[in-house]
Amino acid sequence: MLAALGLCAHAQGAAQQELDVVTIHGGRPTSLPAQIPTTIEGITAAQIAERINAFDSEDALKYFPSLNVRKRYIGDYDHAVLASRASGTGNSARSLVYADGILLSNLLGNGASYTPRWGLVTPEEIERVDVLYGPFSASYPGNSVGAVVDFQTRMPAKLEGHVRLAGFAQRFSEYGTRDSFHGWQGSAALGDRQGALSWWLHLSRQDSDGQPVGFANRLVSAGVAGGGGVPVTGAVPGRNPANRDWLVFGANNQVHTVQDHAKVKLAYDFSPVLRASYTLGWWRNDAVRRSDSYLRDAAGNRVTGGDIDVGGRRYSLLASDFAPQRGDLEHLMHGLSLKRHARDTFDWEIAASKYDYRKDLVRVPTVVLADQDATGQGNVTDMAGSGWHTLALKGTWRPDAAHTVDFGVQRDEAGLRTRVFSTPDWLAGTDGIHVSTFNGDTRLTSVYAQDTWRIDPRWKATVGARWERWQAYGGEVSNAISALLRFGARREDGWSPKAALAWRFTDEWTVKASAGRAIRNPTAAELFQGAIVDGRIVNTDPGLRAERSWTEELTAERLTPRGSLRATLFHERTRDALYSQPLTPTVSTVQNVGRIRTTGLELSQQADDVFIQGLALQSSLTYADSRIRENAALPASVGKRQPRVPRWRATALATWRATDRLSASAGVRYSGTQYGTLDNSDPNGFTYMGVSRYFVADVRVRYRFDAHWSGALGIDNLGNEKYWAFHPYTQRTLVAELKFDL
Fold first, then answer.
1. Which residues pair with 207 in a beta bridge?
2. CA–CA separation, 54 vs 66, rounded Å?
3. Which of 61, 4, 7 is nearest to 608 (CA)?
4. Per-residue pLDDT tens for 273-288?
5. Which element (helix H / strand E) includes 17?
6. Fewer Cβ atoms within 10 A, N terminus or C terminus of the chain?
7. How far apart are CA 109 and CA 149, in angstroms?
């Protein structure tokens, strides 16, 4: 990992000579606006291979300062939310993830169910990953308020091929579960450049078993004294996040997922400065979620339904407590661009992308099943037709050596389509009785411009602004007894100014200051929600406002041929933050939190050849005081800490290149106390539905046998830490890989 983009070039001495856009050696440059004097961090494919046990693309972000991905298990496709300095792992819409300029962030909603589509990038494809911290570029919408992640994938300059086989094993112990979980991953890639045409083909399959991530439970106080049900044993006593006594009846959501991935990339150079590119990505996932009841009757039979007696109290088991689930998903991604990149007076680009839920079925029974593979009545949720598409016209004008002006017009559209039907065959039913419909669309039309001005060799400034028109329309809901009811359309306009200034006051030291406003508009899932009562839509907030954030940072950075050191003060003020809050004592819905303020300090360090030749050290430390300052919907939350934003975070990673063939790394990741609720009423983080602190260590050894073959062994969570973010994270996991490079 690099402490800044300049680190990619500092070994060449470039960063000491001038305060300019650095040249990235040994790979494709970032597509982020590196000319803006603000915080950008990066990691290359070679560094990922040496340092990180990477099974999924998001693993590349493990040791970035202030970042955390809520990845519960290998292959976690629907809950891996990215958290940043002032945004927790419940705010997926407060960051942006791109791959080769194609939007992977799922802005149909906000939260665990709307995570970036990480599966459309595999670790073997990655050429480099860069992260822009904060909303300081006018070329990105307000969802960039936390961070912008840019995956650049491989595009060959000559014939190359790669084959990789990897496996993992985890021993998991929690509540009444004691089991081992395994998986493997295989991939093959081939690419070449022949004259003006270059191409890349990548295929992969991942077959993995994750540990259970949910647990059926009841508060002890919810039991009815006097018994009356089937006497059972096996319930595990404990305390819930609020430190109330409860009983855990069993595990659920143990996921077996088989994910297939294919990608074709084509590029054609019409001239040395004009390139057309096309990307087709295909991702398929067969997911089976199973449950395991800990409860046994007097004869030792497993109990999964009906009334039960635990310690003289009666509890009723619901069909949902131990319901299995099936997922059948097939998504397509397209990207097309035409780009002039002469780096003379004027360059331009036309880019379009589309992400399509070609098939997205989730099946769950609504009756208690004696066998989880048995048929029976159930519901099917069909999200086919959901997706998003983007169109961007971009230009770069360089009127003289002092100015670089970026400008453009963008349109981003997202459409949510959800239909639920009931079927007598939950495993195979293709249609049935209508249960509900939930649809909605959003559109963001933007115009932006920003000028990066080299005032003199030591001073550089960037000033920009972004104008946006947000529209929400097509919102509609229905239930089993009501026809479609429609929401009213909405439209709002907004401005987001940006500014940054850098001063290189010595050959090694630079001071940078950045400020930017971000408008994070409601997603379709946040805006078009509610229930239907007496033919009316209720339990919704039709006046839901956009989040408006001002973010500032002040950075001092030292770059030398052997390393870097950075200290960044950051401050963010957010009005009308979007959170699910109690609307009534029994109903919660997304509402605005009046004001949240975050102030913090981020330290980042990297050094090569520390003490001995080949030893690289990198570390980061983040302090963030994030507090709710105003919230009319839940006054008890005022003065409390923002959910899932810990006060302290830290990483450290040591990598030793013992020889040209052998490397080893050891790293630690720390996160302090967190809360999952707005009013911080969940002090017990080390339990199901809690959010805990953690200290996790990882190790990896990699050996290159010859010019073609290499292998690696590693352990994630070496100390077998048990930690939670509502669901349990993985425990100690052994990983191994073997790779062939042509």
1. 184, 258
2. 19
3. 7
4. 999 999 999 999 999 9
5. none
6. C
7. 18
3 state SS of 603? strand
Q: Are 221 and 245 in contact (CB under 8 A)?
A: yes
Give the strand pairing for 147-153 and 96-99: parallel
Residues 6+ apart with CB under 8 A from 360: 328, 329, 330, 331, 382, 383, 384, 386
Residue 311 backbone zone (phi > 0: left; psi -120 to 50: alpha; other: beta): left
What rounded mean pLDDT belongs to the chain? 94
Contact yes or no for 679/18 (Cβ under 8 A)? no
Tell the residue number behind the tokens 């086919």, with chain if given. 384
Pairing status of strand 306-310 against strand 230-231: parallel
Determine the Cα–Cα distance for residues 732 and 720; give it in Å rounded to an integer.
5
Q: What is the DSSP letter of 642?
A: P
3-state helix/strand/coil string of 41-72:
EEEEHHHHHHHCCCCCHHHHHCCCCCCEECCC
Identify the pLDDT of residue 22. 35
Look up residue 657 and give its two tokens.
């290149």
Distance (Å, rounded) from C-alpha 137 to C-alpha 677? Answer: 32
Within the chain, how many helices (H) and strands (E) appear? 3, 40
Q: For the chain, which ranges sit under pLDDT 70?
A: 1-29
Q: Is the CB of residue 265 less than 8 Å from the CB of residue 279?
A: yes
Residue with tokens 């079925």: 361
Structure tokens of 561?
């041929």
In this predicted model, what pLDDT tens digit does every residue of 20-55 receive, in sequence order? 433 333 345 677 887 888 999 999 999 999 999 999
Q: How far apart, in whole angstroms, are the C-alpha atoms of residue 321 and residue 249?
A: 9
Cβ burial of 62 (10 Å; 0-12, 13-18, 19+) is: buried
